[in-house]
Amino acid sequence: MDTPLNIVIVGGGTAGWSAAAAIAGVVSQNVATVRLIESEEIGTVGVGEATLPHMKEFNDHIGVIEADMMQQANATFKLGIEFVDWGYKGSSYIHPFGVHGQPLGGAMFHHQWVRSRLSGDESSLGDYSYPIMASRAAKFDFPSRDKNQVSSTYSYAYHFDAALYARYLRRFAERRGAMRTEGKVTDVSLDGESGDIASITLENGETVTADLFIDCTGFRALLIGDALGTDYQDWSKWLPCDRAVAVPCERQPGKLLPYTRATARDAGWQWRIPLQSRTGNGYVYASDFISEDEAAGTLLSSLDGEAQGDPRFLKFQAGRRVGSWQKNCVAIGLSSGFLEPLESTSIYLIQQAITTLLSFLPRKKIDPALRTEFNRLIDLEYDRVRDFLILHYYANTRDDADLWRYCRSMEVPDSLLEKLEFFRTSGHVETYRNGLFTPASWLAVYIGQGVMPERYDRQADKLPLDEMLGEIRKMKAQIAERVDRMPSHGVFVEDYCPSNDVPEAIAEAVE
Ligand SMILES: Cc1cc2nc3c(=O)[nH]c(=O)nc-3n(C[C@H](O)[C@H](O)[C@H](O)COP(=O)(O)OP(=O)(O)OC[C@H]3O[C@@H](n4cnc5c(N)ncnc54)[C@H](O)[C@@H]3O)c2cc1C
């Protein structure tokens, strides 16, 4: 039997501790051992608080107990993202974690909905989505396991405190045998022959070797970038936001919303993430279109409650490494690439890279075929997310600010143009096997951004129009009636996973 693979992770942010927790939680120590090196002096990026439903699968897979994690990470549930003022000023739509309606008369639901709109009906697509109606009513419950129920048509994610989540994963990983070293990596040595990373050196002079290094050093990209010189593909011509300013604020008494809000601003957009005890806020902006002071002013003047501390500024460049596994080093997290947090995709990309790495866990002598396939799959993940994000900027009709005019007229990747054209002309949404975002997500954003198809699936016409309209009205009423019976999100969270962090006055105000 092979001796265990010696894995060293550099960096202890969400990426580093997610990797350590997964390896320690899933892989036997006879197969791989894991040591994580992090520097408290350098610290973590400290943002990243909204997630996607895949996180539940990741947590379940590695053995995290949901209620325990939520309680300790000050977490709430998330059913989707509301986009305010995106397609045009005054618009609002929710990208839900679930489908709209149910297939009807031999066609996908949305074809019947398009048909209804073309016949003059004015109801919005969101009226047929269970998670959207629940979000609007600030309600939450677990999805039904009975697939015949409309209350089974969604999944959910979390909002949490990123620092508390990383701390939770650290405890989880250490209990399962992961070793932690406090220290700053100051040097990286390469093997003269193979070009592999031979060792890293810490500030105290210790030299550390490994079979496999995982670079989780964030934007610094110490191993994959500085040491191995892996190129970075710059996507800022399509995603021009390159800065963010972030500040939490006090949570106001009242409804605890089960969704993230992304409000378009003149030079970018502002996030609002509701946690149990506070609200996370940030303005993601394009520095070509607004100054740092103006961005901070916009953010601070539009908070729900009093700011907790001074605003923090972050810089980034949209893009990804050209292959995040090079030699004996895998980059995971911000070191492998960054796509702005509009659709909360970064932690998803982290956890997807980890589960892919686990399924391709190499032996001591790394098989290059594993590396090639890993890079193909992870590159694809990034490319899919990129196109989906660009859609939000490109499909806008705003004429009130330079950023939006630029985005409307920019040249976008062919892969996106083809999808858009297919939808516009036929009403069909392109499907693919690998990569994030199902047709339901693309549909929500197309329609939300004002991209209406000219046609629909001809099979929909089999059902007489009046009958179809009657059926979809029944669907809408059924959803409204079921949502009405759901508990409020605030009450649900307070029963299931009350955070130790919630001040009493706020807890009482959570109805
Ligand atoms: C403005 C903004 C908003 C975001 N919002 C979201 C969101 O809502 N949802 C989402 O999924 N993602 C979001 N993200 C992304 C998310 O924050 C990151 O993907 C996540 O935090 C992982 O970061 P990381 O672990 O890769 O890097 P970091 O958190 O930066 O961690 C880097 C680690 O490396 C260590 N390190 C660095 N250099 C050295 C060295 N020389 N020696 C030793 N240790 C070292 C540091 O100490 C630290 O522990 C957002 C990002 C930004 C910029």
Automatic annotation (TrEMBL):
Domain of life of the source: Bacteria
Positions that bind L-tryptophan: E343
UniProt binding sites for FAD: G12, G13, T14, A15, V185, L334, I347
Positions annotated to bind 7-chloro-L-tryptophan: K78
Coiled-coil regions, chain positions: none
Entry-linked InterPro entries: FAD/NAD-bd_sf (IPR036188), Flavin-dep_Halogenase_NPB (IPR050816), Flavin_halogenase (IPR006905), Trp_halogen (IPR033856)
Alphabetic keyword roster: FAD, Flavoprotein, Nucleotide-binding
One example GO MF annotation: nucleotide binding
Active-site residues from the entry: K78
Protein name: Tryptophan 7-halogenase
UniProt lineage: Bacteria, Pseudomonadati, Pseudomonadota, Alphaproteobacteria, Parvularculales
